[in-house]
Records
---
Amino acid sequence: MFSLFVWEAFRDSKKDTKASNIQSVEISAYEIYQKLAMAGVDLGYARELVTKYRESGNSVPFAKWIEPKIRCSADAMADPLGGRKIMLIGPTGVGKTTVIEKLAAVEALWNHKNVLLLTSDKYRIAAVYQLRTYAKILGVPLEVIFEVNSFASVLSEHADADLVLLDTAGQGQKESKNVESLQAIHDAYKPDAVHLVIATNMKYRDIVDVVERLSVLPISHMIFSKLDETVSYGPLFSVFQHLDCPFSYFTTGQDAPNDIEVASAERFANLLMGGVGGRARE
Ligand SMILES: Nc1nc2c(ncn2[C@@H]2O[C@H](COP(=O)(O)OP(=O)(O)OP(=O)(O)O)[C@@H](O)[C@H]2O)c(=O)[nH]1
Ligand SMILES: [Mg+2]
């Protein structure tokens, strides 16, 4: 399949490429396409990228060329949190609560911020218990939001909080009611940033479906969790075709607070070209 594509895509280039360069250009384009395809990048998108890369003159390695196309908080020198009031949304089980725990630990312990934890995931007693235990260990307050109209009083009670992190219940694939209640929570909370958490081991079609359903909310950032649980990062990269907002964080394991890093394009480009997704510093 690949060789057929390579032949068709690069056949015409032979006409205007010096004979001595043909071999290396073709092999490199072939390898890049193959790596993108192996990583699970949407094939049409992979073809488009390789063609554009060739048109750019191949003056830098592909991984470097693609970096500016991967919008990440670390590269923009932007605050990855995106403000004071943060809201996390995403499908069930992707790691939202774990991200909240990691961010709370990093910001409270390392950056000495007054952190307030909120959760609107009131139905799952075990989930609230888990977050409450963690909040106690960190010595930060946790408030459970039972009604959307309690946001105003809770926020004014904790007006001294430098950072407010709101955890929400997971969104099942087919529950439109949940999206409506999430919207009501958003409107009452009025967050500065909405981070959509996507797990790297999700299927591309499911990611697109989640993005489409949850796009009724003003998603400002994407967090990619469970980088350690896959070797194909292409579906995540293809998300840029559907949602134009930066990656804020990557998570690389279950260990809080260690397994979280601010997203960088260099890291992601490396993963896309066959790197491994465990902790960056190991
Ligand atoms: N391997 C790995 N596991 C993770 C990572 N982040 C979270 N997990 C695990 O994924 C499972 C689900 O994590 P949660 O944080 O409860 O996920 P959630 O999105 O809050 O789930 P719901 O509230 O049920 O929607 C837990 O077992 C976590 O330890 C990660 O980066 N890597
Ligand atoms: Mg949770």
Note: The pocket of guanosine-5'-triphosphate (ligand 1) is lined by residues 90, 92-98, 121, 127, 170, 225-226, 228-229, 251-254, 259 (CB under 6 Å).
---
Amino acid sequence: MNRKVLLKNTLLMIALLALGFVSVDSQTTYAATNRVYPTACKKTKAGFIKPSIISRWHEECRLPVVHMGTDIGIPKKTPLYAVCTGKVVSQKYGNNGGYQMTISCDDDQTSAFYAHMFERTSLKQGDKVLAGQKIGISGDTGTAKGIPHLHFGRMKKDTNGDLQYFNPEPELKEWKCKG
Ligand SMILES: [Zn+2]
């Protein structure tokens, strides 16, 4: 690839990232062990492009508290997907997290936490979800006001049965976009 083509491709990539994201939907079904990226991704001929991470694990975001998750920068109303097959363990409004929900995964005792959603999800506590199922849309509720993103958290039960947060970013790098 010569320099001119490389430059053109780089500029195209930057333009695609700046444009926001299209809704990617399909009838794909997933086995319980599959994991799916929690947001819609940008679909290109070369494959999916994941949204930018705007704040990392333990990086200060807008509050002077330890940041227990990863912030994924996405426009309001971007589809959000269940990362695993499991069930809704809570969905509520909180002053910090805004409209938020937690899903427990059937296969490994982990949970996934979604915050700053646009509106209350239609799913109720106890509802079953399939990996890749649309669970709501993103927003900027709670402390995200003005900076739309998904705050995504991951938890795993410790030996006492208490949920402990862990850094979701290594998994987010691995998980495939829905498509
Ligand atoms: Zn956050």
Note: The longest strand covers residues 86-94.
